[in-house]
Specification:
eight-stranded mixed β-sheet, 15 helices
């Protein structure tokens, strides 16, 4: 079965076609600047040349039409007709408390996703637009929703509740939800496979370190805590997001800077993180690592603070699970950042972690980066959220 995986943003759309038998990606691409002048589709069949086409894309329906046209193109397409696409798996950011697992998309499911729009106003409406566009162009093809938040719905109450008046939870469902769940699920399961041990017997900490970043504690096959909260702003320092701060800072800045709540939230989401901490040096860790090696004080301050925060969360989750068997680094920085991994693991001697310096230099590979005598195993495990979505889709439609 061929599965089309769609990840729809407000003005972009990423896609992959995955063969469920081989689990290989047979084509992938990206639609950019949807509804904006200069829109473009990038398409690449497996083993073929990457094609970039600038073409009008007034809405997501047109973007999906262009994707389907590319996939069925006589010369570079990978299927002869849309009938060869068995199902579509949609990444959906927020499922609230309504969805603890992936589900086949029905009208009732669409309505429930829409009810979560307040919790993810930038993402869920765009996800729904993508689903509607696919339903319009592929009316007979099954659609599956895979939720970023679903994996974290196993957290116990003490892990997801905030110290706020309980009425806010009852009235508005204000609580910790967590994100990157598809990645945390895939990587923790893959780590168990690599270790040759039962997933249900392990205590695993996953560090998803990308431009957005989060840590999760996975105990006996279930997530018991994660660093992101009601929104993706909480937790680790990220590319441009501040992560954990004293909430009183918001009021302090409002008085000092004369900013309203929307302006301050824009600062916290778009101008903070390693970008702000480095005094606008960069939000790209490749730039920060290069300057760190040159002893740039902004880069040194930023990377040390970033890695300290990651190490603190690892320590907290080791305590929450009363131990840890494996620590995984994944996503762009986790998979490709030997310096970040070294700085984080420098704090983990109390867990019996010793890095294998040669193995730690590898990038983008599945590799154990701790020595054979380390009490806790440390791994780099490339994430594959698209494959995880495809697997969930196949599970539900077969």
């Amino acid at each position: 079965m061929n599965i089309l995986v769609i990840n729809c943003g407000s003005s972009s759309l990423k896609f992959q076609m995955i063969n469920s038998e081989t689990e290989q990606c047979i084509a992938k691409g990206l639609c950019e600047r949807i509804g904006i002048e200069g829109s473009m589709i990038t398409y690449a069949p497996a083993g073929g040349e990457k094609e970039k086409t600038v073409t009008p894309m007034p809405d997501h329906t047109e973007a999906i039409r262009l994707v389907l046209e590319a996939l069925t193109n006589e010369k570079t397409g990978v299927v002869k007709s849309l009938d060869e696409i068995g199902a579509v798996g949609h990444r959906i950011v927020h499922g609230g408390e309504k969805f603890a697992e992936s589900t086949i998309i029905t009208d009732e499911v669409m309505a429930a996703i829409e009810e979560c729009n307040d919790l993810a106003p930038l993402h869920n409406p765009a996800n729904l637009i993508g689903i509607n566009a696919c339903k319009k162009l592929m009316p007979g093809t099954p659609m599956v929703g895979v939720f970023d938040t679903a994996f974290h719905q196993t957290m116990p109450e003490e892990a997801y509740m905030y110290g706020l008046p309980y009425e806010y939870y009852k009235n508005y469902k204000i609580r910790r939800y967590g994100f990157h769940g598809t990645s945390h699920s895939y990587v923790s399961k893959r780590a168990a496979e690599l270790l040759g041990r039962k997933y249900e017997d392990l205590k695993i900490i996953v560090c998803h370190l990308g431009n957005g970043a989060s840590v999760s504690a996975v105990k006996n096959g279930k997530c018991v805590d994660t660093s992101m909260g009601l929104t993706p702003l909480e937790g680790l320092i990220m590319g441009t997001r501040c992560g954990d701060i004293d909430p009183a800072i918001i009021e302090f800045l409002a008085h000092k800077e004369g900013k309203n709540i929307d302006e301050i939230m824009s600062v916290l989401n778009k101008k903070s993180g390693v970008l702000g901490l480095s005094d606008n040096l960069s939000s790209d860790f490749r730039d920060l690592e290069a300057e760190y090696e040159k002893n740039d004080p902004n880069a040194i301050r930023t990377l040390k603070t970033y890695c300290y925060r990651v190490a603190k969360y690892i320590g907290a989750y080791a305590a929450a699970m009363n131990g840890v068997d494996a620590i995984c680094f994944t996503a762009g920085i986790g998979e490709n950042g030997p310096l970040v991994r070294t700085l984080v693991c420098g704090y983990l001697g109390y867990l019996g972690v010793t890095l294998d310096e040669e193995a730690n230099q590898k990038k983008g590979e599945e590799v154990v980066i701790s020595t054979s005598d380390s009490t806790t195993t440390v791994l780099a495990v490339p994430t594959n959220e698209e494959l995880a979505i495809a697997r969930e889709t196949v599970r539900l439609v077969k």
